[in-house]
Amino acid sequence: MSFIVYAAEPHDADLLANIRVQAMRESLEALGRFDPERARERFLKSFACEDTFKLVSGQQILGFYVLRDRPDHIWLDHLYVHPSAQGTGIGAAVIARIKAHAVSNGKPIRLGALKQSKANAFYQRHGFQHTHSEDFDNYYELPLENIEPSTPVFILKRAEPEDIEQLANLRHEAMKDEWAANSLMECALARRHFFEDYKPEATLKIVLDGELLGFTAVHEYQDYIHLDMIYLHPKAQGQGIGAQIVANIKQHAAQVGKPIRLGALRVSNSNKFYQAQGFNFTHNVEFNNYYEFTPNNIVQARPSFLLKPAEQADAEQLADLRHEAMKDEWAANGLTDYHLARSHFFDDFKPRVTSQILQDKKLCGFYAFHSYPDHFYLDMLFLHPSAQGKGIGSRILRQLKDIAVKAGKPIRLDALRISRSSEFYQTHGFSVIHSEGYENIYEFTPEPAFQLETTSQGDFEELQHIRYTAMKESAEANGLFQHDKAREIFLSEYVPEKTRKILRNGKTIGFYVVLNHPDHLYLDMFYLLPAT
Fold first, then answer.
1. What is the pLDDT of residues 239-295, one digit of tens each?
2. How far is residue 240's CA from residue 236's CA, in Å, rounded to a whole number?
3. d(C-alpha 478, C-alpha 356), whole Å
4. Relative to the CA of 58, which of 96, 248, 454, 525 has its CA 20 to 30 Å away?
5. What are phi and psi of 82, to 5 degrees?
6. What is the DSSP string of 11-27?
7. Which parts of 16-73 are beta strand (E)?
8. CA distance linking residue 375 with residue 372, whole number of Å
9. d(CA 224, CA 532)
């Protein structure tokens, strides 16, 4: 199974702790020491982003490892792969990476493993030698002289605001020849545009042993994924790095059922590169060609299903389905009083807010969605195990998020801390706002939806009304009462091709005008209707 390694971020701690608990459960139960909360707490207490690396396939976190740099060795503190991804070769690939890192740093690798864990045989197969044992753990070392040299592999690391200068310089080195080939010689203008567009939260640095090789920026929208940038320093080009990154973005696209779109300079090697990666040309505008990639499995990832309102008579069947969907995760959290859980379900069941999910006329899941004055509450979303992993949950969640966007209200929900549900909701834009007992409380806050459109001469009266409404109070407070004169001035200055309308739900709520001067952009006007 292919994956890319990302440097961990602070918000990953809880999710990685869950993966550790699930990966260790079998070994700890064999020792009679399975305590999920204790296992979580021990990991969270020592969690350090700078030492922790996620194994990511598309949008799914398959596992992680932790390397501590010691004066005379490298300590492999953790290496966990989620049970669903074990046996796919991921562990061996990670060990190869760690071996390359050890050779690069000139240090042996050391680690510990639970005595009755399958990890002992795994590490021995990869050349680790047993050194000693303690109460519960065996300890191993892989001497440096026993490691065959190999090529280190890059990691992706979230960019910071202070990286902007370094990234702009790298972009210049990567693009200067292609800009020249397209007769784009305004390098200072290109640099200024980069500074204006830079979004650290969407940008990932490509790093190898602390050296910056390049960076990429990806934005996910409701209907598609936009590959905004991928730049590699000339010395890092031609080594397959870009292909690996694009392959991972394609995997993400397949998982969420969305196409990928991007633009590339007409005269550039990027065109051949993207075409080789399966992107199809769609159109061109000025100096750019535009491409789209549609995953082959996008249809399979969007199976047909029907929603049917629940009735009181459905309670028993829904309770049974909920039990099948949740019994393993309840057990992982030490919640084994199933009769109590069933009783609580019957107490809380409200048919009027519950929808059954039917596939081929057969019940495969259900959800309950409440609307309150200031938020929506997703009370339940359960799928029978046979219906999981097919994109049904993702489609339903996107539909509910669309409702939230249109209503301008957040969605809240709760999920067991140790569960795949926590991973699922986080990958769909939900964030933990607090925890209670065995559960995390999540929230999705929609951004106000708006669109931009070019204006025409016929839009003048509408824009004048917006400008008048937006400025009336301030103008009068400053003694500027000559509204007819203000209208004449606006009419004389109005240039439709430089003016953009701002629309929300099809209604114009504002507009702005940007003037492009030789050495700067000038925001000439920006008006919004009050209360928007």
1. 999 999 999 999 999 888 889 999 999 889 999 999 999 998 887 777 888 899 988
2. 9
3. 60
4. 96
5. -55, 140
6. GGHHHHHHHHHHHHHHH
7. 52-57, 60-69
8. 5
9. 26
How remote is the C-alpha of 195 from its chain's centroid? 23
Go through the chain and tell me how many residues it has.
532
Distance CA 33, CA 514 (A): 65
Q: Where on the phi/psi map is residue 489: left (φ > 0), alpha (ψ -120 to 50), or beta?
A: alpha
Is residue 74 within 8 Å of 67, Cβ to Cβ? yes
Distance, in Å, from the CA atom of 396 to the CA atom of 355, rounded to the nearest integer, reads 11
CA distances from 520 to 176, 183, 351, 467 (A): 21, 20, 59, 25
Q: Is 435 helix (H, G, I), strand (E, B) or coil?
A: strand
Beta carbons of 79 and 94 less than 8 angstroms apart: yes
Among 187, 214, 211, 188, CA closest to 203 = 214
Residue with tokens 């396939």: 57
Cβ(17)–Cβ(36) below 8 Å: no
CB 513 within 8 A of CB 525: yes
pLDDT tens for each residue of 490-513: 898 999 989 999 987 678 899 999
* Burial class of residue 197 in the structure, from the number of CB atoms within 10 Å of its CB (0-12 exposed, 13-18 middle, 19+ buried): exposed
Dihedral angle over CA of 230, 231, 232, 238, nearest 10 = 60
State how beta strands 376-383 and 411-416 pair.
Answer: parallel
Amino acid occupying residue 468:
Y
SS3 512: strand
Residue given tokens 């590959």 in the structure block: 227
Q: What separation in angstroms does the CA of 113 have from each of 42, 122, 123, 369?
A: 16, 10, 9, 45
What string of H, E and C letters represents the secondary structure of 132-183?
EECCCEEEEEECHHHCCCCCCCCEEEECCHHHHHHHHHHHHHHHHHHHHHCC
DSSP state of 353: G
